[in-house]
Amino acid sequence: MNKLLLSLSALLVASVTAFSAHAEEVKGDVKAGQKKNAMCIGCHGIVGYQASFPEIHKVPKISGQGAAYIASALNAYKKGERKHPTMRGVAESLTDQDIADLSAFYAASGVVEGTAPLAKAPEGSAKAMELITKGACVSCHGDSFSKPLDPTYPKIAGQHSDYLFVALKAYKVENNPQVGRGNAIMGGVAKQFSNTELKIMANYLGGLPTELKVVPENRFR
Questions:
Q1: pLDDT digits (tens, 9 = 90+) for 171-210
Q2: Taking the CB of residue 195, how many other CB atoms lie within 10 A of it?
């Protein structure tokens, strides 16, 4: 499995390099992104907001997430690599400049100057740590799970556990037009585990110290 992960990592790094080169051509503007987030705030700007598809779960915290990851995710929805009808509809309406601006805005949203993630995440239960080690999660997401190896990978520490669980399961789904995520590395990782094991991992990661937040718009405070 480790050889497979290394091979897949090499392929992903190559594709990430190509994406990063394209991303450098489009610079995001924080203030412009704030003016374009009307389609985002109805879900991501309400504390505790829950989605019902493909099952009930909290929508992810995206304030404080890495800009390159947000852009990568939106482009994956736009291309259909991530299958979610609502998010694809939103992403398809966005230009490359819109995506860059929104990504810049949410990366800066709620960030407190001078704060930094822990160098290493605290350990969880023996079972959780066994599964996290088996999945080699640190190799991409960092020792704190908030300092990913590549900026197009997400910060996952402190993300909503129920969202992480749904996302991890989505990497196992195949041949479903409505649900699933087409990422070779994450597909290989997630398919090693039962759903029960994925929930243990999600619960551990969701309980970690985090930079991620839900920052309500004034109208939702």
A1: 999 999 999 999 999 999 999 999 999 999 999 999 999 9
A2: 12
Radius of gyration of the chain (CA): 17
Task: Read off the DSSP letter of residue 83.
Answer: E
**pLDDT tens readout for residues 146-174:** 999 999 999 999 999 999 999 999 999 99
- Quick one: tokens of 10? 């090499």
CATH topology of domain 2-220: Cytochrome Bc1 Complex; Chain D, domain 2 (1.10.760)
User: Which contacts (CB < 8 Å, 24+ apart) does range 6-13 have?
Assistant: 8/184, 8/185, 8/188, 9/139, 9/140, 9/185, 11/184, 12/183, 12/184, 12/185, 13/150
User: For residues 65 and 154, is the Cβ–Cβ distance under 8 A?
Assistant: yes
Residue 75 phi/psi, 5° resolution?
-65, -35
Give the strand pairing for 180-181 and 82-83.
antiparallel
Q: C-alpha angle with apex 156: 155 to 160, nearest 5 degrees? A: 130
How far is 121 from 26, CA to CA, in rounded Å?
Answer: 34
d(Cα 122, Cα 61) in Å, to the nearest integer? Answer: 21
Answer yes or no: pTM beyond 0.70. yes
The domain ranges of the chain are 2-220
The tens digit of pLDDT for each residue in 102-149 reads 999 999 999 988 777 779 999 999 999 999 999 999 999 999 999 999
The answer to whether residues 39 and 23 touch, using CB atoms and an 8 Å cutoff, is no
Q: What residues contact residue 110 under an 8 Å CB cut-off, 6+ apart? A: 63, 64, 213, 215
